[in-house]
Specification:
single chain; alpha+beta; Jelly Rolls; 3 helices; 9 strands; globular
Amino acid sequence: MIKKIRAAFVNRSRLLKISGFVSCSALMLIIGVVGQDQIGITKSYADAHGVNVPPIVRLDRVRLGGENLGDFAPYEPDSGNLIARGYDYYYSEDESFGIGVWESKPGQMTYNDLEYDELMFVLDGSLVMTSTDGEREVFGVGEGLVLPRGWSGRLAVPEGGVRKIWVSYMGGVKGQ
């Protein structure tokens, strides 16, 4: 009986995490579309008009689990002391929208007037976000957050590190 209750709890917990991630991802897509001149070509429109539709991008378990992410290296050393690694799964053709997995050892970095919108969903470990007005929030496994364009504050990675999925709408600022 206890095993059935535990299994039901684990399944419900996974479902809540997945639905939360999907909801946050949908929000990022909406943020990316707002203010644009056109929404884009839907698959049904593309099929009917002979437009090539790109393949689905799979977020594989290996990298999401922290394997094959490359070597750890200083991450934005002008902004902090994080040592991180990651894998970029996808960028739109114009590099305005991207998705990846990122992992960091303990440390911190400062954001000054963030130039893009970013969703973060914690897969392992935790993040501590502190805004410039001193509001501090901790995000653990299965939790996510959206940093809106213009946000300023500090991201801290406590002992044990963090691994997260990130989804960003950059509006063309990648690589600048």
